Amino acid sequence: MILSSHIIAASAVAAPLLSRPLDFANMAFIFFASFLSHFFLDALPHWDYKMLSFTKENGERRFIFKKYFSTKDFLKNLLDGVIGLAGAILIIGFPKDFSEFILFGLIVFGSILPDALEATYAINKYRFLEPLHKFHLTIHGKRVFQNRPFLGTFSQVLIIALIVFIFSKF
């Protein structure tokens, strides 16, 4: 799924937890709920936009540094992230104080961290990230709408709307 979908879904999942006291246990729970929501969403059929900085060789993602990395891929991810942040603000509100800012950051960071770690693994092949990489590949949905962006986008919007609706009832 795209970044905005992960951020919006994690915001909906974590929203009921935001009224609880700000303590380490609640912060950890919010972070891990956001982190795990990423894998749940990736297990569902979805569409991902193409990243020009990455290619697949023998089923593995490889980083290929091109001029696209600093322009098209960066702007695509930036816009995607800003849309996700706007969605998060609509769901949980704009942080009013430092503690709300921390919780907001935990939700956003936790929801996109698996993809950031996946990109880090694709670029540097750090061995300590290999188990997470293999888990991410295993859990990732096999029926990705890669060549059907309209259908993939529609299914993603439908899934995210359903998640927001379900968790708004808590």
Structural class: mainly alpha
Strand order of the largest sheet: 1-2
Rough outline = globular
Oligomer: single chain
Helix content: 55-70%
Largest sheet: 2 strands, antiparallel
Tally of DSSP β-strands: 2
Round the Cα radius of gyration to an integer and report it.
Answer: 16 Å
Task: State the separation between the terminal residues, measured CA to CA.
Answer: 24 Å
How much of the sequence lies in strands comes to under 5%
* Contiguous uncertain segments of 5+ residues: none
Number of helices: 6
Mean pLDDT: 87
What is the helix/strand order? HHEEHHHH
Task: Summarize this structure briefly.
With 170 residues, the protein is mainly α. It has helices at 3-14, 24-43, 67-92, 98-124, 130-139, 149-168, and strands at 54-57, 60-63.
List key phrases describing it.
mainly alpha; two-stranded antiparallel ribbon; globular
Give me the secondary-structure topology.
Elements: H1 3-14, H2 24-43, E1 54-57, E2 60-63, H3 67-92, H4 98-124, H5 130-139, H6 149-168
Antiparallel strand pairs: 1-2
Helix pairs in contact: 1-2, 1-3, 1-4, 1-6, 2-4, 4-5
